[in-house]
From TrEMBL:
Pfam families: TrkA_C (PF02080), TrkA_N (PF02254). The keyword Transport applies. GO terms for molecular function: potassium ion transmembrane transporter activity. One of its GO terms (cellular component) is plasma membrane. This is Trk system potassium uptake protein TrkA. NCBIfam families: PRK09496.1-2, PRK09496.2-6, PRK09496.3-2. It comes from the Bacteria. Residues 1-121, 230-346 form the RCK N-terminal domain.
Amino acid sequence: MRIVISGVGEVGTHLAKMLSGASHDITVIDDDPKRIEEVAGMADVVTIEGDCTTFAVLKKASVRKADLFIAVRPEESINIISAVLAKQLGARKAIARIDNNEYLEPNNKEMFINMGIDYLFYPEKVAAREVINLLGHTSTTEYVDFSGGKLSLVVFKLDSSSPLIGRTLIEVTADREALPYRTVAISRDGDTIIPRGSDQFQEGDTVYVIANQNDVKSLMVFSGKPNIKVNNIMILGGSRIGVRIATELQDEANVKLVEYNPDKAYKLTETLEKTLIISDDGRNIDSMIEEGLSNMDAFVAVTGRSETNILAAMVAKRLGVKKVIAEVENLNFINLAESMGIDTIINKKLITASNIFRFTMNTDVQAIKCLTGCDAEVLEFIAKPNSPATKGQIRELDFPHDAVIGGIVRGDRSYIATGSMEINAFDRVVVFALPSAIARIGRFFS
């Protein structure tokens, strides 16, 4: 696939590296020569320096031959203009990053489609939604719904009190056909394992499970941690993510938001009427203790600095806060943050990748979730009539060993996949896959 990326900041650079590694032809555009030089040293891409809103630059990038144009500059207006121009010049699909929720309202969204933009995405909104979902499932480290919530991916770390520790997968699933969930992966010491029957669970393992939504609560007993109701929450950082979280939760919980900049804190008091806004430095431990951090059920650090978020989250954890979430944009810091005991990491690059990656697949992919805690993806496919996936029982499909079918949604019913099941045309199929399998699994459903 020929892909043109406009903007090679943190998000654009991550996309360029990820997509060039998947054997796509990538061209990147940016008006900053330093950023152009940096991305050229990281990924196999064609680089063009210039203004992405000019016809000359877009023509130089050969957007008329592009299968996909991705606009991910920090400036929303530039993304919209460049995406419209690229589509008019011949790009097959054009998508743009935005930071205005008003654009996603149904009537307004239709206007952008009429202008030629196929998809708008707002990473901060998706990140805020992920945090809110996690605050409703505090014993999980990641939680993702598929097919409108009929199936869920539940991720949890095994505490020392987990009843799974020391047991093999086959021991846990002796009554396999009756279980309403399936373990699709285990992350251990930086490695991701597609588990087989003889694999044994260990303390500290991160376990990835596909479950029927109604059975998520019963599943969480295996984590060894109780689920708690979040009544008191402190948010560090008046970023777009922080403000969206406060806006959605302030009617049902006691929310405190700590913002370092006094002017910004004052403006937030005008929009967040039911949230207590505090102007303070979140790195000051004494100040945070005075503001009642140790009495919080949950702490969410979403400032613009990964280091600040990690340090503040560590302090919250040591003060006994049960659920701690930190935004970590530096991908190199994610494993470090998790090893320090932070419950959940969110990352806008991975959120953006999840939104965009499905547009690069050759088959019908409804959703992709690029996971934070391991180098893997969870994908939701629709099985086409007469596709290889519909030609027999799952155990007979010769499915890649580095991928596993977790569940199937058929009409209004969901099923946890077993070897004896058959996939029907138009079933929605949730698959956990390591990067080595991504290019091969699509053909099973197309």
